[in-house]
């Protein structure tokens, strides 16, 4: 692989052209293993950022891609429809909360969030109300496009640079009570205050249910989410749930909102939708939202990406839904959760560990000192695993098909990193 070319000319996520960090050349992937060009195998602890839930090179997903590409890989969606989209949307609606009846297919998680915000704005516009604000939580993350950044934590994110360019929204304190802790009613106080003081100008609340991902890997109490739904109803504000990271079983439920037994007005999904094969996302809306939007001045929802409902991606996503329908994910995520609950507390004793947390197929070790990326990445590769931390967060969200020995190896590698001074020196 021409790594010198890569270093010189190709931007990777959040990297510098001046001081590019080492990139490891992957030549193939199979099941839970990533194969490096030199033949070394790494156990994947990231599911390629939450997406490859069924593992890599899955025969059922491969077959769906092969079969679809021989028919057509893409066709425009304006004025045309096709089976891959119809089949996928049928399955999506059968999995999603039953009040959601309309699906808008888009290309990435960030775009699904943009779409959800536009839907909420058009909804109030159609009702003749000016509601230009969104209420969200601190420590949240919703993507890298501008509107998505504007509802991402303004301080702890990588986005504080763009502050002057972004619309100003309202941020409530993030929940403090962890998923497994005793619920503290006062957790909702700030959210309630913000909503009651500003509800007349708030189009929607947008948040990540139960797990705040890239903004801090925080796993919070379902009663917070339940309270949010009740308050949205009380103050007549729409609720958008961003399940782009949590959707499709990752937290041990098909959708994280099921932990709180609530339904959103608008739901965003992406990432694991195609099990990481291709980029595809969806924004689902209730009939009340969709019909109000379309009854407004524009007479339609004003969005239509070129690659909307890409048939190849839809066919693979349908195949991924078929795998989920076999219901093995429930046992698989339960087993991973059990292993994290046994293995992670042992790391808590370490002086560099501030906290450990887990839920479903997610395990997090928060450290007291930021990691040295170059050093920790090299150590993980040496240990035969692929884990990519950021800041003080070493987190794992392995493919659901991971076996106990894979999880053990991931946690052992984290322990090894904690014991290596290099991994925490600046
Ligand atoms: C909760 C959440 N929302 C939105 C996004 C953005 O998705 P994408 O990177 O596909 O644009 C992410 C990505 O990490 C996410 O975790």
From TrEMBL:
Residues at site: Participates in the substrate recognition with KAPA and in a stacking interaction with the adenine ring of SAM? 14
GO MF term list = adenosylmethionine-8-amino-7-oxononanoate transaminase activity; pyridoxal phosphate binding
Q: In which pathway does it act?
A: Cofactor biosynthesis; biotin biosynthesis; 7,8-diaminononanoate from 8-amino-7-oxononanoate (SAM route): step 1/1
* Binding site residues for pyridoxal 5'-phosphate: 109-110, 242, 305-306
Q: One Pfam annotation, family name?
A: Aminotran_3
Q: Which UniProt keywords apply?
A: Aminotransferase, Biotin biosynthesis, Cytoplasm, Pyridoxal phosphate, S-adenosyl-L-methionine, Transferase
Residues bearing N6-(pyridoxal phosphate)lysine are 271
GO terms for cellular component: cytoplasm
What domain of life is recorded for the organism?
Bacteria
Oligomer status and interactors: Homodimer.
Database matches in HAMAP family: BioA
Name of the protein in its database record: Adenosylmethionine-8-amino-7-oxononanoate aminotransferase
């Amino acid at each position: 692989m021409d790594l010198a070319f890569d270093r010189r000319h190709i931007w990777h996520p959040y990297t510098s052209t001046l001081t590019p960090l080492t990139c490891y050349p992957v030549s193939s992937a199979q099941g839970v293993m990533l194969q490096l060009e030199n033949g070394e195998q790494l156990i994947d602890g990231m599911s390629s950022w939450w997406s490859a839930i069924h593992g890599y090179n899955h025969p059922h997903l491969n077959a769906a891609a092969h079969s679809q590409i021989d028919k057509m890989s893409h066709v425009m969606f304006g004025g045309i429809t096709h089976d891959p989209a119809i089949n996928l949307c049928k399955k999506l609606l059968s999995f999603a909360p039953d009040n959601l009846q309309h699906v808008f297919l888009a290309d990435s998680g960030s775009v699904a969030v943009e779409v959800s915000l536009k839907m909420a704005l058009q909804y109030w516009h159609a009702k003749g109300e000016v509601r230009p604000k969104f209420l969200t939580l601190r420590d949240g993350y919703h993507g890298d496009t501008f509107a998505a950044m504007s509802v991402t934590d303004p301080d702890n994110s990588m986005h504080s640079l763009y502050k002057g360019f972004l619309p100003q929204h309202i941020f409530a304190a993030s929940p403090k009570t962890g998923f497994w802790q005793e619920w503290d009613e006062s957790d909702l106080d700030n959210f309630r205050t913000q909503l009651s003081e500003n509800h007349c100008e708030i189009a929607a609340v947008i948040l990540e249910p139960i797990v705040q991902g890239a903004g801090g890997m925080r796993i919070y109490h379902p009663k917070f989410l339940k309270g949010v739904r009740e308050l949205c109803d009380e103050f007549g504000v729409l609720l958008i749930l961003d399940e782009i990271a949590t959707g499709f079983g990752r937290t041990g439920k098909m959708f994280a909102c099921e932990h709180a037994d609530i339904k959103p007005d608008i739901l965003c999904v992406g990432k694991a939708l195609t099990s990481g094969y291709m980029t595809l996302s969806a924004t689902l809306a209730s009939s009340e939202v969709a019909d109000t939007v379309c009854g407004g001045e524009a007479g339609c929802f004003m969005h239509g990406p070129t690659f909307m409902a890409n048939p190849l991606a839809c066919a693979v996503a349908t195949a991924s839904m078929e795998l989920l329908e076999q219901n093995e994910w429930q046992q698989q995520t339960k087993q991973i959760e059990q292993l994290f609950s046994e293995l992670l507390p042992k790391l808590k004793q370490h002086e560099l560990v501030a906290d450990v947390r887990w839920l479903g197929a997610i395990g997090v070790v928060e450290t007291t000192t930021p990691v040295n990326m170059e050093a920790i990445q090299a150590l993980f590769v040496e240990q035969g695993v692929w884990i990519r931390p950021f800041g003080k967060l070493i987190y794992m969200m392995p493919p659901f098909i991971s076996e106990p020995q894979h999880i053990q190896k991931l946690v052992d590698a984290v322990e090894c990193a904690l014991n290596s001074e290099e991994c925490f020196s600046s």
